[in-house]
Amino acid sequence: MTVRVRFAPSPTGELHIGGVRTALFNWLFARNQGGKMILRIDDTDQQRSSDKFLQTILDSMEWLGLDWDEGPRKDGEFGPYFQTQRLPIYQEEVQKLLDSGKAYYCFCSAEELAKQKERNAQKGLPPRYSGACRNLSPQEIEEKKKTCRSFVIRLRVPEEGVTVVNDLIRGRVTFENKIFDDFIIVKSDGFPTYNFASAIDDAKMKITHVIRAEEHLSNTPRQQIICRQLGIPIPVYAHVPMILAPDHSKLSKRHGATSVQEYRDMGILPEALINYLALLGWSPGGDREIMTIEEMISLFSLEKVGKNASIYDLKKLTWLNSHYLRTKEKSIIGEMAVPFLQKKKLISGVQTEEDRKYIEKVVDLVREKVKTLQEIADASEFFFSENFPYDQAEVAKHFGREGAELVIKEIIKALQEVEPFQKETINLKLKNLGKSLNLPLSKINIPARLALTGRTMGPELLEIMVLLGKEKVIERLKKAEALCQKA
RNA sequence: GGCCCCUUCGUCUAAUCGGUUAGGACACCAGCCUUUCAAGCUGGCAGCAGGGGUUCAAAUCCCCUAGGGGUCACCA
Can you list the residues of chain A whose pLDDT is less than 50? Predict the structure, then answer.
């Protein structure tokens, strides 16, 4: 039997790192097993679902390279892959349950139920359904259908016995059936609830392994009860540990960047995010940390997924990102930096071949010092514009001192003589200048760097000079000379 | 509150069947390198939640306690 897994997000928000990690584990498992990855959209919440979220989720998945074999933008033989398009399927199953008495209509209003819950809470009892509509006669049902505005359908849950979840990660987990009340399977708007739709779809889509977050573990027995009542197969479950925020609480917007989109905007590379997330809750064993996607696929196994929740740490993500930033093909990084440079208005929308080459050189030079694509853009401003800012404190310190102007003048004079304007020739000239002025090289380089870039730190000075070209170098030094007089 | 899950450095984790000076990575600190800042290299700091058992031997098996998380929705 070929492995079939699914990732089933609901389009009620952006894809956050917890969700992606679940998607990733599903994907790695499928690819490792030579199975199929199915993407299903659980959009039964009419109020909160939106097409905008659907699109960003799909875009995020594609950006990360987590492709799917069946699903939206793709289709497949077990569709449709949107739950809202599968209503007839659910209706058919509900009817079966209704006919056999395994489910029943409930006419209790939301207000009534809320009151009931409150009463139970006051008595210190668990909030459960009273069973008021459990045994209505056919006549009563017909009558209520006429008088009540709306109704739901509940599943008759056996009161005795236990339901055992066999989880690949957690082992056997046993639940007493008496802790469940008759839960709702069809809402008053006619849409199925999550547990119901999910159980049916997993079976109809021939899902073999349900890999999802641990928060669903407590829901699993309900789904198994549904499966049993419907006589459909129960998949193998694997509940992966949750990802928690640094304060140990459940992930939310107030914890800063949590969605894929935000990381993308920040200038995180997809492979860095994937690599980082793979390490959260899973380890290939040994000392492996940095892995290609192919290595992850071949090394992945659910047995090696841990049981305990993990807390995400931006610092490590950032470290991985800087690693990939430095080691990936420079033309690719150059390409990836383009939107960030555009956003800062350092380059225009269209580039000539020459522009591209220049961008690539700049990016290649700057990437050694930074951790994100955004930082590449921030660090390369002076390569694209004459209006870059000067660090005022450094200006005061280096241009304000006595003799500063003279040094700049000497540098200008020396550089003007350099021909051709290349690393070696410039280097030789500056070294000689240092000797003749009896100054350490740093006393020449630091003011020069400040004049050319506005900062005292950055890529290698000689590289900067060559890339900028003689003309701009001289021009900026002259500007600095003027600053000296003011300082 | 009931039920369920979990617990190795600050964080992510490793440790085939019980025997390890409990390993690695990020972060942090120091040194080296260096024409700045990084990177890189070397070294350092730091952990088996607590208590009972079982055993010649426990991070590892069992029990209890504590702590954390999840779930009990006409959300998924």
Answer: none
